[in-house]
Structures
1.
Amino acid sequence: MEIRIGNDIDKERILSVRPIAAPYFTGDYFLVALDGEGNILGYATVFLREIPAPVPAKEAFIHLIEILEEGNFGKGIGSLLVQKIIELEKEKDTYQVRAYCDIQNVGSHRLWWKNGFGISPVKNQDDSILGSFVTYVL
C-alpha cells in the first residue's frame, strides 16, 4: 500500500464516488491510500492553522478521514494515513495534530486511541458529551 499526498486527479476520483466530501477539500493538503493497482482505498484531508491561544505554534487539523469501502475497514488504512500526517508535520516543526470526533463514532475513537492521541470530551451545557477533540503533540 502507498500513502502519498493527493493531486487534482485523485480529488476528482474521490469526488466522483463521494461528492458530499467536496467541502472537506478546502484545506491545505490531502493524502490518499492506494492499493498495488492504484485504486484509492481511503483519504485524509488536512488544514493548517495557528493555535488559537497565546502561544506561537501551528497545528495540523485532520478535517476528514474516510475509508471508501466498508470491506476495507479495520485493515489499518486509517492508521497509515494518520501516521503519514504525523511524519509530514514533524518535518515542518508543527506543534500538534488534532481532529474532532463525534461521540457516536466508536471506530474513529479507537483509531485515535490506537495511534497515541489524547482524547478530550466536549460537553454540552447539560453535561451530555457531544464528541471529542483528539490531540497528538509532536
2.
Amino acid sequence: AYGWHNQQGAYEGPPGARPLFVRQAHFVEVEVDTDTGLVEVTKIVNANDVGKAINPDACEGQQYGGTVMGVSRVTTEDVVYCPDTGVVLNGNLIDYKISTILDVGPTETILIETGMGYGPYGSTGIGEDVATVVPGAVYLAVHNAIGKWVDMPITPDKVLKALGKA
C-alpha cells in the first residue's frame, strides 16, 4: 500500500507531499487465562522492509527491542497519579513496571531488502515502527482471544473486569 504524507519541505515532489510506504507486518499470538486474567504473549513475528540492511544484526536488534517496548507499553506501563494532588506516584523504575525480554514469547524477525528506502544504499529506518505497532497488535490479539475490549495497560484485573468476573 502507499499514500501521501503532507509535510512542507520534506520531499521535492508534488507540492508538500512525499511518498509514504507501508513496509512492515507484525503478527502476535497471545494466551489469556480467563480465570486469573493473565495475558501471556506467546509469539510475535515482525517483518520489516529495511530497504538495505547495512547491519542486519542491528536491524534485528531494533526488532527485538521494539517488541519488548511494545509489549511493555500495552501490558505493564502505567503512570499512576494521586487522585487528590495529581502527583505521580510511580515516577521511578521500581514502581513503574516495564517488561523485559523474559516477558515476551519467542520473537521471529524477518528482514526484507527491496532497496527502496531513502537512505544510503536504499536503506530506511526500522527503529520506531515495531514499538509503535506491537501494542496495537497485542491489544487486538487480546480482544480476538476473549471477545472483549480491555483498557490499556492490559492487566489481569482489567481483563477480569471486562469478562464480568471482578
3.
Amino acid sequence: MRHRLAVLIAGLAIGSVGAGVAVADTGGRPLSTSLTGAEEAPDPGDPDATGQADLRLNQGQNRVCFDISWADVDGTVFAAHIHIAPPGSPGDIVVPLFEGSFAGTDSISDCVEDVDRDLIKAIRQDPSAYYVNVHSLPDFAGGAIRGQLGD
C-alpha cells in the first residue's frame, strides 16, 4: 500500500514538472515586461509591489502562454489580464490570463487556449499597444501592478 502511494506521489510530481516544461516550450513569439505599481493607470497601483510577465504568443495554435510572478502585492491577488491601451491609460481586457486566490508574493504559469488568431497577430505586430496587469483585493481591484508590452 505504501509503495503504491509513493509511486502515485512520484508520478504526480513528475507530471507537475513536465507541465512546467510544456509551458516554457510552447513556441510562438516571446514578449516580456516588468510590472510596477507606478505604471498602473488611471490610479497608481501598489507602490511597493513588483512583478514580471513573460508571454509566448502562438498564432498558429491560438494560444497565449505565460509565466507571471509578483512580489509584495498588498491583499489577495485574484486575476491578471492583457489589456489594450497606450501607456498611462486604462484599457479593455483582451485576454484574461488567470483568476483565483493567490498570496501577495507568488507566481503562476499556464496557457490560454482558443485566443483569436487576429488578436494574437495584432499583439505581435504592435505589442506596445497592450499591457499586462495583476489585480488584488481589497485595495487594487483595478490593478496593483502593470507593464506595457514591447517596452
4.
Amino acid sequence: MSIGYKALVADAESRIRTISAADALTEASAPDVVFVDLRDVRELKREGKIPGAFHCPRGLLEFWIDPESQYHNPIFDEDKRFVFYCNLGWRSALAADIAQKMGLANVCHIDGGFEAWKAAGGAVEEKK
C-alpha cells in the first residue's frame, strides 16, 4: 500500500503550527520572524515573493538546516521564528515538519501559501 501527498501533508499538519495568511501579514515586519520561501527559483522569477523573504529551495532545506552539512546556512542558527511558505502550502507543511524534526523549535507554515498571501492583500516583491 502506498501513501499519497494529501495524506503526507495531513500527517505533517497534525504536528506543526499552521497560520493563516492574515496572521502572516501581521508578522511580516516583525524583527524576530524570518519568512522562508521554499519555491523553485523559476516560481520566484515568474511570481515574485513576500518582501524580505529568505529563499531556500525545498530540495536544499535539510542540508541548509544541518550545522554538520557543508551546505549549512547560518540563518537557521538564528533565534528567530521561521514561517515557511510555498505556492499552495503543501511543500511548506512538509518542510515545517522536517525542520521541527531537525531541531528548529519555532516554525510554522502559511495555510494556502503564497496564493493565500496574495489573496489576503499581501505585498509582492519582484525577484531580480
